What does this fold into?
Amino acid sequence: MSSVIIVGAQWGDEGKGKITDLLARDADMVVRYQGGNNAGHTVVVGSDTFKLHLIPSGILYADKQCIIGNGVVIDPEVLLAELDSLRARGISVDNLRISERAHVIMPYHRVLDQLEEASREAKIGTTGRGIGPCYVDKVARTGIRIGELVEPELLKSRLQEILPAKNRLLRGVYQHEGFALEHILNTCLPLAERLKPLVGDTTALVNQAVAQGAKIIFEGAQGTLLDIDHGTYPFVTSSSASSGGAAIGAGVPVTKLNNVLGVAKAYCTRVGEGPFPTELKDALGERIRERGREFGTTTGRPRRCGWLDAVALKYSTEVNGLTGLALTLLDVLDGFETVKICVGYKYKGKVLERMPAQAHVLGECIPVYRELPGWPEGSTRQASCFDDLPVQAQDYIKFIEDFTGVPIVLVSVGPARNQTFQRAPIL
Ligand code: GDP
Ligand code: IMO
Ligand code: MG
It folds into this structure.
C-alpha cells in the first residue's frame, strides 16, 4: 500500500485542503480522521472555490472513495448543508461514506461550547461549533454515535439517559432553559434519515482498501500545535490532529502507515488565543495578512500572522514523524526585502532550542531570528520547478530543510492547482 497522512504542521490553515485535492488525483481513497466543522479546507479549481468543513477534500473527483472516519465529530445539519451545496454545484457525493462510530455534535454541544467560552476568563477562542463538548462526551462515554443517531428507538433511549444531566448543567450552571427530548428528536430524526444511506462500517472499507494495496490519503484537520496532547495546551482543539490521530481516527493499524506529509506555510498564522512567539503585531503582520488573505475559512476571523517558526516546525517534525514537507503560500513572501526565521527562543536569559511544553513559558519566549535576504524584485507565482524560483527563495527553502532535517517535497505558490510543483514522489 502507498498511503500518506496529510497533517497540519503549524496552527492550522496551512493549505491541507489544497494539497489533499492535488494529491487525490493519484489516490483511490481520501479519509478525514479527526476534528469537525471547526475545520475549513479550501480547494480552488479554476474559477471555482470550495470550502469544505467535514467532507474530505477528495470529493471533487467522482471516482475517489471519500470517508468520514470514526475520529471525526459530525454536526448532521452542517454535513447535510455541505452535501447539498456540493450537489447544487454539480459535484457527485455518491462516493462518500460516514463511520457509524463517529460522534454526533448535538444542539446542546454547540450551546455549551459558546456558554463555556463566554464564561472562561482565559479565552481559547473556540470556533463555537460544539467540538470540545462533543469530544468531552465521547471520552466521558456520554456521547451519541452516528450509528445511534440513525436508529430512532436507540437515539431516544440514549437521549433519555443523557439529557437530564445536560439540562442540569445548562440550567444550574448557565441559567439556560435546556432542551426538551421531543424537540431534539424532532430536529435530529429527519436529518438522521437523510444521512442513514451513507452510514456504515468504514473501518472495514479502509482496511479492505489497505489489503488491496490502494492509494489512500488520510486528511488531517487543524494542526500539530493545536493537537490536544502535543499542542500549546490549553489553547488547542480537542482532538489528535497530529499524525498519530490517523490510525485511531480511521481505524487503520499503525503498522500500515508510513508516509507523513506535513503542510506548513512559509510563515505562520494562528486563529484564536494562545502563545505565538513570532507574531507580528505591526505593519509587516498586516502586509502578510493582506497578501495571504488571512481570514478564517470557517469563522471569517482575521488570522494572527508572523514569521516562520522553525523551532516549532522541528518539533512538529518530531511528533509527526514527517517524511516530507509541503511548503505553501511561499508567494506571500514575494516582495519582502528580508525574511526572518525563528531558530530559538530566548526565555529568562537563556536560549531554548526546543519548543517548551508549557503555554505560559512559550508565551514569554522572545524569538531568536535568522534574517535571510528576501526576493523584493522576484516572483515565485509562475514557478513550475525549483530552479524557476528566485535564488533567495531557493535558499529560504534549503534553510528550512537543513534546520528541520526534512525534505520539502512540494512547493505551493498560489491557491490554484497548477500553482504547485512537486520535487519528489509522495503517493
Ligand atoms: P487548510 O485549513 O489547511 O485547508 O487551509 P485553509 O483553506 O483554511 O487556508 C489556506 C488558504 O490559503 C486558502 O484560502 C487557500 O486557497 C490558500 N492557499 C493555499 N495554498 C496557497 C498558496 O500557495 N498561495 C496562496 N497565495 N494561497 C494559498
Ligand atoms: P483547519 O482544519 C485553524 C482553533 C480555534 C481555536 C482552537 C479551539 O481549517 O486547519 P475549537 O473550535 O476546535 O474548540 O477551537 O482551535 N481551530 C483552528 N484554527 N484552523 C483550523 O482548522 C482550526 N480548528 C480549530 O480557532 O483557537
Ligand atoms: Mg482552514
Notes: The mean pLDDT is 97. The CA atoms of residues 409 and 425 lie 8 Å apart. The pocket of guanosine-5'-diphosphate (ligand 1) is lined by residues 8, 12-18, 39-42, 44, 292, 297, 328-329, 331-332, 412-415 (CB under 6 Å).
